[in-house]
Design goal:
Helix content is 28%, strand content 8%. It contains three helices and four strands; from the N terminus they run H-E-E-H-E-E-H. Helix 2 crosses helix 3. The chain is globular and about 40 Å long. The termini are close together. Bound molecules: zinc ion (2 copies). One zinc ion binds next to loops. The site of one zinc ion has 8 residues, from loops.
Length: 103
């Protein structure tokens, strides 16, 4: 931390760098039991517990939204595919790619 000096960054990302929360919190959580809004923590609905890590589906959505996929070569916003069939999930390498775009 503390080494992100210099280049100005988009306002939407500043929140991510200011805190140690998972960057996937920049998108709303698609988990039907959670419904965390952008920049809110995911919670467990049954007991209200706040999760340290976002739901896996939120991380998937986040990676799909901001990163190209190095595995299947799709643009940000386009679902991953396997031999032309769209995947509900994303390739693990896309999540790594999404993390890299924040550095
Ligand atoms: Zn969630
Ligand atoms: Zn992919």
């Amino acid at each position: 931390m503390g080494h992100h000096q210099g280049a100005p960054m988009p306002a939407g990302l500043r929140h991510v760098f200011r805190s140690r929360v998972h960057p996937a919190r920049s998108v709303p959580c698609p988990n039907e039991h959670c419904h965390a809004r952008a920049h809110q923590s995911c919670t467990v609905r049954v007991n209200g517990r706040v999760l340290k890590q976002p739901h896996a589906s939120r991380i998937t959505l986040w990676a799909r939204t901001i990163a190209c996929c190095p595995a299947c070569q799709v643009e940000p916003g386009t679902p991953c595919h396997n031999n032309g069939r769209a995947l509900a999930d994303v390739h693990p390498r896309r999540i790594e790619e999404a993390k890299d775009t924040l550095v």
